[in-house]
Amino acid sequence: MRLGVLGPAQGDLPALARGAQRLLDEGHAERVLYVAEDDALDRVVEGWAQRLVGADPTEGAVFERALRCVAATPAEIDAFVASERARLRLRLLRSLPPGQRTIEILDGRVALFVFDKAALDEEDVVAASLLVFGKSSEPLIQRVGARTFFSPGPIGPEGGAALLDDGQGGVRIEVMNARGAVTAREIVGPAAAGPGVRVQGGSHG
Hints:
The protein is an alpha/beta fold. The protein has helices at 13-25, 40-53, 62-66, 74-89, 122-127, and strands at 2-6, 31-34, 93-95, 102-106, 109-114, 130-133, 140-144, 147-151, 161-165, 171-176, 182-188, 197-203.
């Protein structure tokens, strides 16, 4: 699985949108999770959906939208289908439930996602191999014993977006800056060797 992670937008919705689109289009993320306690990604997704299909982009209105195709040309029907497929793709973008946590299984390991790692108790930490949190002033990858703590940092010039890829003999973490360049990389698991690597100048990957 290739799981995208986005840090808090801090009010910068255009930058959040660019990060989300880059994770989907260039990072080929199968899902993207926003680890923050606001509705910024929901607002971005709603705006995209409205531009794609109109003022009411909800699933319940799909049949009403389809009625426009009754007297449509083949090209118009193709455009309708394409816009609805693009709308459905937006389901890949999810926000962390406010005040809650999410668990994913990556490379057979428990990965725990939370906004504030201070909210975790000892039982949470013991159960997880990878702990991903959003509340951080900068990107961070830190090993503590058998566990790795990771934050993509807030959306901004130096971070805010990351890919977790469990298809590399472990879980590969790549932090990306606003230009899509990789600024830090770590592999959690058997293939890991030494601390996280800081990538000077970044590289597209």
